[in-house]
Specification:
This protein is α+β, with helices and mostly antiparallel strands. It is 29% helix and 28% strand. It starts with a strand and ends in an 18-residue tail after the last helix.
C-alpha cells in the first residue's frame, strides 16, 4: 500500500471525517478520496456521544454558531434520507423534541423563554396536565416544562451508516494511525502511516481531539484540548420517555428500539484521560433520577468516556490553512459534532473544492493564524 495517491485525503475516521468524504464523492464521483484513521479514536468522540441534536436549549446568543447549528438541525431529515438510501444502514432519528424542566433553570427561566420567543424557536410551555399527558414519568418536582423543537439520532448508527456509504461510493478507508507527514515547502505531499505513505493533492485534518497532536508534526499550534465526558447507558423500556431532557449538569436521551437511555455527562479538563469512575457514574444517574425517578432502579448496560475537541473560543475550526496551500481543517466541534455533521460536510466540501469564496470568520483557521 506504499505511496498510494489520492485527490483528497481525509485524516480522521469519525462522523466528521467520513461525512466530508461521503459528501465529496457525492459531489464528484470521479474524485479519488481516502479516509485515514485509527477506529479506536472514533470510539472516544463520534461513538461516545448521546446523539442529541440540540442547538437551542443551551444557547443564549443568536450568533453565527447558533445559526450554523440551527441550519444543520434542519438539514438532518434529508441528509439521513439520502445517506440511508446509499448505505442501506438504518439510523434511528427522532424529532420528538427536548424537555427543559423549570426546576433546572430557576435562575434563567424567564430569560430562556424570552430568548426562544425572540428567535422564533419552536417551543411550548407545558403545565401539570400537559406533562401528565405527554411525559407522565417525570418527577413532580420538575415544575413547569418547556418543550423545544429539537432532535436526536443514534450516533453509533450514524457513524456505521456513514462508513458504509463511504465504502459504497468508492472511498478508500484505511484503518491506520497517521504518525507524520512528508512536506515540500508550503505543501503537504503525503501522510505517513503504519501501512505506508499515502500521497494526496489535498489533505483534510479532521481527527477531533487528536488533530492538535498531528498539527504539531506540521509545526502548527492548533489550539485544541480534549474535554472528558463520562456517560452511561441504562436499560429502560421505550415507553418511559419519548423526549431528550436537559437538566442541571445532566441530560437524558432515549435511544429507543430497545437500546435504553443514555445519561451524561461530565465536563473535565484532564487531557486524554479516558478512565471511568464508578462514583461519578453513580452521581450522574442520581441527578438524572431527580428528573426521571424510574432511572433509580434501571440496570446499567455500559459506561464510557468521550473526549470532545474544544478550541480556545469553543468554536469549530473549519477551513483552509494559511500555512499550507493544500491543507484544510475541520475540528474543534466540541459538544456539537453530531449536530453539525451535515452542515459542516457541505461547508467543508465547498471549501475543499474551491466553490466557496469566503469562510465564516468565526470558524476560520485564520483567527488563530493557522
Amino acid at each position: 500500500m506504499k505511496n498510494m495517491g489520492f485527490d483528497i485525503v481525509v485524516i480522521g475516521s469519525g462522523v466528521i471525517g467520513h461525512s466530508i468524504a461521503y459528501r465529496l464523492k457525492q459531489e464528484d464521483p470521479q474524485l479519488r478520496v481516502a479516509v485515514l484513521g485509527d477506529p479506536v479514536n472514533s470510539l472516544q468522540a463520534s461513538r461516545a456521544a448521546a446523539g442529541m441534536l440540540a442547538p437551542f436549549c443551551e444557547c443564549k446568543v443568536a450568533d453565527p454558531f447558533f445559526e450554523f447549528c440551527r441550519e444543520s438541525l434542519n438539514m438532518f431529515p434529508r441528509f439521513l434520507e439520502e445517506l440511508i438510501s446509499v448505505s442501506d444502514v438504518p439510523v434511528y432519528f427522532s424529532q420528538a423534541g427536548s424537555l427543559m424542566p423549570s426546576s433546572s433553570f430557576s435562575d434563567s427561566w424567564d430569560e430562556r423563554k424570552q430568548f426562544f420567543e425572540s428567535e422564533s424557536i419552536p417551543h411550548e410551555i407545558w403545565d401539570g396536565n400537559k406533562i401528565q399527558e405527554k411525559a407522565p414519568y417525570l418527577s413532580k418536582e420538575c415544575g413547569e416544562i418547556m418543550w423545544v423543537g429539537e432532535g436526536q439520532v443514534n450516533n453509533r448508527q450514524l457513524h456505521d451508516s456513514l462508513m458504509a456509504a463511504s465504502r459504497k461510493l468508492g472511498v478508500h478507508i484505511l484503518e491506520a494511525n497517521v504518525s507524520g507527514f512528508i512536506r515540500k515547502e508550503s505543501s503537504v505531499r503525503a501522510a505517513v502511516t503504519d501501512a505506508g505513505e499515502i500521497a494526496g493533492d489535498k489533505f483534510v485534518l479532521a481527527s477531533g481531539s487528536w488533530s492538535a497532536q498531528l498539527a504539531k508534526v506540521l509545526d502548527v499550534n492548533l489550539p485544541l484540548r480534549p474535554i472528558k465526558g463520562q456517560m452511561c447507558r441504562l436499560q429502560l423500556q421505550d415507553h418511559f420517555l419519548d423526549y431528550t431532557i436537559h437538566g442541571m449538569m445532566t441530560y437524558v436521551a432515549p435511544w429507543k428500539e430497545g437500546n435504553g437511555i443514555v445519561v451524561g455527562s461530565t465536563m473535565e479538563d484532564k487531557g486524554f484521560d479516558s478512565s471511568i469512575e464508578d462514583k461519578v457514574i453513580d452521581e450522574l444517574i442520581a441527578r438524572a433520577a431527580e428528573i426521571l425517578p424510574c432511572l433509580k432502579d434501571a440496570s446499567l448496560i455500559e459506561s464510557w468516556t468521550g473526549l470532545r475537541p474544544a478550541a480556545e473560543d469553543l468554536m469549530p475550526i473549519m477551513g483552509r490553512s494559511g500555512r499550507y496551500e493544500n491543507l484544510f481543517y475541520s475540528s474543534g466541534h466540541y459538544r456539537n459534532g453530531i449536530l453539525q455533521t451535515p452542515h459542516q460536510a457541505g461547508y467543508m466540501t465547498s471549501i475543499v473544492r474551491g466553490d466557496r469564496d469566503e469562510e465564516t470568520p468565526e470558524f476560520s483557521p485564520s483567527r488563530y493564524n493557522l
